[in-house]
Structures are given as structure tokens and as C-alpha cells.
Write a structure and sequence with these properties.
2 copies of one chain form a homodimer.
Chain A lengths: L1 H10 L1 E3 L3 E3 L7 E2 L1 H15 L6 E5 L2 H13 L3 E4 L11 E8 L4 E8 L8 E9 L3 H12 L3 E11 L4 H7 L4 E11 L3 E4 L1
Parallel strand pairs in A: 4-5, 4-8, 8-9, 9-10
Antiparallel strand pairs in A: 1-2, 6-7, 10-11
Helix pairs in contact in A: 2-3
Chain lengths: 190, 190
């Protein structure tokens, strides 16, 4: 998606260790009008998939998922990262290692909100090693629901996650796919 | 807001210890069309305040803030709850004790996203003891920005937070104010 690639080049900040900061428009400050356009693109890509629910994971995925959900007229469910007093014990769980935070999280979704009748589009901001996405897919499959696909804003295609998830038979649509990035030479897209 | 009160009575679940679960439509599963109506109500309440940015806190506030922001045509900034590798060191911080999780969090916002020129509306899902809201107000004031007010979806008015924040001179608008709640006798609104 050209609009997104241009925005990443314009406002993204490259750091060492394959860090790409897009926190001025995507995942700390959110340019709501812009992200809404990303949501519209997800609708174009998955318009014929009978999506009846969007699943994402806290925190960065929530805004994107909610703005996209408006085009699908479906609710959003976001997986939580730890057990809180306000979540019942009746949950699906998966274990996810977070590259960003260097810790292992249990992610969970209440069993009340995903079931066999659901056709779920998973939405997230980044796909890199694929751990979060794999955990979300597992949650959906544990619930007996169908994963119609994953809509990703930015895929670090030089990391293994995208290939691995696609080889599992899951349709992955990434709006920007980064082939390589380097603080010196910049970003190259696929 | 009558629509919200009715929804809380219909779909809210009361637990012991003053727990009100609204996770079927507000903060785990999100009824996007419904929450968008809440956003429209915030716009009606704060339409003449020259809001140029909405501030919220991860995770439950993000969806509400993004949907509301569409009516204000402003970006959202969400405060994060712990220091991650992807946030620069240049941040405003505050300490917030979480009643829900029973832990103390440091919340932070990058200094790049709040400044003296900003007129900020704070949005969150719940106001109870007011710790999160107070932390957000402190962040805004540390940045030299103006808090035009706080838009809260559900205020537990029998707890001290709302009164304390209002006595600080901050305008607080809560779409539903709960006077009392009890698993046996139900919910009474103000």
C-alpha cells in the first residue's frame, strides 16, 4: 500500500537491532484518519470472506482493529496479556514470547466471545517473528472458530514469521512488507 | 446517557468487591458501532473546547478514544504502562496504582507527542478511585499542556475518584454514573 510505505519512509524512525518506530502515527500516537484508511484497505482485501469478528491483541492492535471493524460492521475482541481480576476463569490461553519486551506472556480470550460459528479476521500492527500471530491463531482454533486470514499493517519480511504462518495455510495480507531496513541506507519494501 | 445505562443493565455482570464486568461490549469484546455512539456523545459534550488531541491509557481506553477521535478529527495518544524497548527515554511519567490488577504501574508518554500548545481531552472506560485519571492529568500538566476535561464511560460515583478530580478543577463528564451496585439488588444510576 503506497500511502503506508510513504508514511513509513516519512515518519518512521530506524534504530539498531531491527527496530522500526512508527509511534508518531501507528502505535503510541495514532493518526486516526490515516489508520482508518488502513482499515478500509483491509476491508477491500477481505470483503468476500464473511468476517463476523475481528480479533487483535492489546495494546497496539486495538485502535487499528476498531477503526477497521467499522468497515466490516463487526465487533472487535482483543486478547489480553495477563490474567486480571476482571476476566473470568473461562478463557482460551496461549503462550507468546514478546520480542519487543523480552518476556513471555500468556494471552487470553474469554470463551464467551469466540465460538465455532465465528469467522475471524486477525488484525495486528506488526508481523516479525510471528509469535503473537501464532498465539492468536491457536486461540481461534482452540475455540473451534475459523481464521479467515490475518491483516497486518507492517511485516518485517526479512524475519521468519510471515513465511511460517503462510505455510500453516493462513492467508496473511500485509499492507507494507519490508525487505530490508538499515539506519544508514533506509528501508526497502517488497 | 440512557442508551449506555440500558446497555449496562442488560449486559453488565456484577461480581463481588464492586466489580462490574462490561467486557461483552466495552473492554474485551468491543461493540464498535455502540462505542462509536459514545464517542459522538463525548463530541457533543466537548465540542466547544478546541480539543486538538485525545489522551487515553492502554489497553481498554484505546478503542473508545480512537472511535471518539473520529468525531473530533484529532489524533489519539495512549499512555503506556511500562517502559519498552520501542519507547525512547524522553518521556513524561507518572505512577498509578491499579485497583484492578493490584499492582503499581509507571505510565508514560513520549515528550514528542504532548506539548504546551495542546488542548487535551482525556478519555477512559472507568473512573473509580481516580488513580489512572490523576496520573494522566499529571502527564499533561508536566508537558505544559491544557486538560480541557475528562470523558469517562462509566463512573463508580460511590468511590472517591470523581469528586477528587473535580475538586482539582478538572471538568469530568461521565456518560453513566453509578450510585450503587450490588449483585443482589442491581445497579442504581445517578
Amino acid at each position: 500500500m503506497k500511502l503506508l510505505e510513504e508514511r513509513i519512509v516519512k515518519d518512521g524512525l530506524l534504530g539498531t537491532g531491527n527496530v522500526l518506530k512508527v509511534d508518531s502515527f501507528l502505535n503510541h500516537q495514532i493518526d486516526v484518519a490515516f489508520v482508518s484508511q488502513l482499515g478500509q484497505e483491509f476491508k477491500r482485501l477481505f470483503h468476500d470472506c464473511d468476517v463476523n469478528k475481528i480479533l487483535t491483541i492489546e495494546a497496539s492492535g486495538i485502535g487499528i482493529a476498531c477503526l477497521a471493524a467499522q468497515y466490516f460492521s463487526v465487533p472487535v475482541v482483543f486478547a489480553k496479556k495477563s490474567k486480571t481480576r476482571n476476566i473470568s476463569g473461562d478463557v482460551y490461553t496461549a503462550t507468546v514470547e514478546s520480542y519487543t519486551h523480552g518476556i513471555i506472556n500468556t494471552i487470553l480470550v474469554s470463551k464467551r466471545f469466540i465460538g465455532p460459528e465465528d469467522r475471524i479476521l486477525i488484525i495486528d500492527d506488526f508481523l516479525a517473528n510471528g509469535a503473537a500471530l501464532e498465539g492468536l491463531i491457536q486461540l481461534v482454533r482452540d475455540a473451534g472458530a475459523t481464521v479467515v486470514g490475518a491483516g497486518i499493517v507492517i511485516e518485517k519480511a526479512f524475519q521468519a514469521g510471515g513465511d511460517r504462518i503462510r505455510s500453516m495455510g493462513v492467508r496473511v495480507e500485509s499492507l507494507a512488507r519490508i525487505k530490508s531496513m538499515d539506519p544508514e541506507t533506509g528501508i526497502e519494501f517488497i
